[in-house]
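Retro notes - structure team

What went well: the batch runner handled both jobs without manual restarts.
What didn't: labels got mixed up in the shared folder, which is why I'm recording both outputs here explicitly, each with its sequence directly above its tokens.

Job 1
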Amino acid sequence: MNHIKHLTGFYNKSNQDPTITPSHISIYLALFQRWNLNRFKNPIIISRTEIMIAAKIKSKATYHKCIKELHQKQYIIYKPSYNPYEGTEVILPDLSNPTSSNDTLSCSINNQTRSATEPKTNNIQHPPIKPTETNNSSTLTSTVPNPALPLNEQLQKRVHTIDNNRNNIDNNSKYSVEAKNQKKSVFIPPTLVEILPYFIEKKATEFEAQKFHNYYSSNGWLVGGKTKMKDWQAAARNWLLNAEKFKTPQKNNNLNPNNLHVTNNKNYAEPL
């Protein structure tokens, strides 16, 4: 195929089509360049971003509109993948001979639409469904006796199914108990109203309770600034123990003038 004749055929066809705009031509030339890099083998895999950069088109809406119109006007065959990880296939038919290109385009478009509209029929064999009675709360199998089996086998099967049902019930109850324990272990930060009676019970001041509440509320109730608190009463006992350690001794403001080793009746008129 002569690619110069191909481009000449494209321009001859686009000159006769009044709806073709510069955007259509720039997109087609970008596709032609991609086809050239693929050594003129069909189909070519394209990326929307690369074609928009090569065609100098900024709008996605313009790109999709023009490339779909090129497909409808039989300049290209456009097969979108609708998958961002897979490229879109584009076929550039030979436009050097207008009659042959129209025939090949119509045949390929008809095949594409036919394959898209025909339903896919796969011979899928589903496994047979066994008639079992189930309950929504727990999977309990039915214990309906089978008259074809002997009486001993029927009794053994019935006992086996009853044991399975008991095991299922025990497992469900075990899971429910674990869920309740998890709910109990969730820490709920106490309020100041809850903290005050506990501090008063421990013979601490209301001011100390406010300090405790303000401190742990500010750091998100974290012990040591890292781990989440589990028991606020244990943290309060720790707080009171540390408060006793860091208490500052009260200063005695009642100074005795005798401690200064000076006389009380000093005559300040005397020269030094």
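Job 2
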Amino acid sequence: MIHVRDIDHVVLRVKDPQAMQHFYEKVLNCPLEKANEEIGLIQLRAGRSLIDLVPVEGKLGRMGGAAPGEEGHNVDHVCLRLEPFDGEAIRQYLQERGVDPGEIVQRYGAEGTGPSIYVNDPEGNTIELKGPPESS
């Protein structure tokens, strides 16, 4: 029997690893956990999970084929559960860092319906920042 607890890691193939690392590390506060330049892998801690950045020009990246682009994304979106969640404060924080956040919208997620904000990383991947579910 399989019982999934939460996401272990997400792997994004990237064209500009420096810009992407800056976004996840400095804007979304996902600290660097490990980097392996030999194979082309940057691992950032996102709570209990990891976000792996694989430069398309590196050893691992070349194995994945063409780079992501306007018409070919390798991920629809990744949802990061935030706690605490103050939507307006999060939107202001993102704007101060040059990120254009979407509106605060109620969306259904793993824990139920609650507030979320969509943002795009420097290569166009959509990141959903999710708050706690509404009280029943």
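One thing worth noting from job 2: The beta strands are 9-14, 32-36, 41-46, 49-55, 77-81, 105-109, 112-120, 126-130.
We'll revisit the folder naming next retro.
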